[in-house]
Amino acid sequence: MDRAEVDSKIRELIGPFNKKGVEIQDSTTFVGDFEFDSLTVMDFVAEIEDEFDIIISMNQQAEIENYGQLVDAVTKLQD
What we know:
By secondary structure, the protein is mainly α. Helix content is 56%, strand content 0%.
C-alpha cells in the first residue's frame, strides 16, 4: 500500500474515535486536537495493528505525535 492508500484507510479507522469531528490534516495531533486519552490511543493503535497486520512498538508510539507521522510510520512498517 502506498502512503495515499494508508492515509485513506486510517481515516476510515479513526472515524469512530474522532468524537469531536476534527478536520484531519497531517499536523493534527492525537492528544491536543483529537483529545485522545491513553486508553483511546491504545484502542486506536490496536485497530491499526489489526488492519495492517503490523506491530507499532511502544517506542514508536511515543514518537508519533500527529496524524502525518502515524501515516508515515504505518507506511514504512508495511515494507
